[in-house]
Write a structure and sequence with these properties.
Helix 1 crosses helix 6 and helix 2 packs across helix 5. It contains six helices and eleven strands. A hairpin with a 4-residue loop joins strand 6 and strand 7. The longest helix is centred in the middle third of the chain and has 15 residues. By secondary structure, the protein is an alpha/beta fold. The N terminus is likely disordered.
């Protein structure tokens, strides 16, 4: 596999030529509180008919290699950042499995926005989370998820309001200059700003939560995403099967295939 010059020089395609992602929806996680976005992407990859399309090797991403998180006794290796494609839903999905190097995040944002533009992606959806400690119960009561948008049409925002979703904003008693505009939200703020500047349609879905066992928050994120995109007919949380890798974090032995 060889990379292409330009924005795709860090994208190594499984096939000899890159896939055409024009008019696709790109979904990716922000590495944020409780890894909610990454867990939600795991659910997508484990339940949709996806194929591995490429891996992304950018200097901002800490190198990592591991076993396949979705198939037991599989000899295929998994890397820090991979791109998957679901042709039937016209969805491309990026999964991050390692942190970003803080000092190199701006260059990753530049790469990502260039890749989206070069591929002529229809819209991008960022799955993120933010610290609950800044909010009261009243702030969160009855709100399934929060959102922020860049260069999005009014119809999208109207749909979110109809769902009961709320535009993300820190409470008035929290001075945003003392904290991040999206505390614990990873690249969400910077990507929103860059997409607005580059006129790239982006929706950030932000779940308010705390660190811990965040599997329930991942399910809630996916339920909200599915309510909007209708990826699966049955939207009940128990219809989304968890990947085998979710059995490993809490005291389980490492899989033998790792060695």
């Amino acid at each position: 596999m060889t990379p292409l010059p330009g924005s795709s020089e860090f994208v190594f395609w499984e096939q000899s030529s890159p896939m055409n992602l024009e008019n696709y929806t790109l979904i990716l996680p922000s590495i944020s509180v409780g890894n909610v976005g990454q867990l939600a992407v795991d659910l997508l990859l484990n339940n949709l008919n996806v194929k591995k399309a490429a891996y992304i090797h950018h200097p901002s991403i800490i190198p990592m290699v591991g076993v396949d998180p979705f198939k037991s006794e599989c000899s295929e290796l998994t890397t820090s950042c991979q791109l998957y494609v679901c042709k039937e839903n016209k969805i491309a999905i990026i999964q991050h499995r390692a942190p970003l190097i803080t000092a190199k995040i701006p260059s990753y944002i530049t790469f990502l926005t260039s890749f989206i533009k070069d591929q002529k992606v229809k819209r991008t959806i960022l799955l993120a989370s933010s610290f609950s400690e800044f909010f009261t119960i009243d702030d969160l009561n009855g709100v399934p998820i929060h959102y922020l948008t860049a260069t999005c049409d009014a119809g999208t925002v109207d749909a979110f309001k109809a769902f009961g979703w709320k535009k993300f904003a820190l409470p008035s008693n929290v001075v945003s200059s003392e904290f991040s505009a999206i505390p614990g939200g990873g690249i969400a703020k910077h990507l929103l700003e860059n997409c607005e500047k580059e006129a790239i349609p982006l929706v950030a879905l932000i779940l308010i939560c705390s660190e811990g066992n965040n599997y329930p928050e991942a399910f809630r994120t996916i339920e909200c995403l599915n309510k909007w995109l209708l990826l699966k007919e049955d939207m009940a949380a128990d219809k989304w099967q968890t990947p085998i890798s979710w059995k490993l974090p809490y005291g389980s032995a490492a899989p033998k295939t790792l060695y």
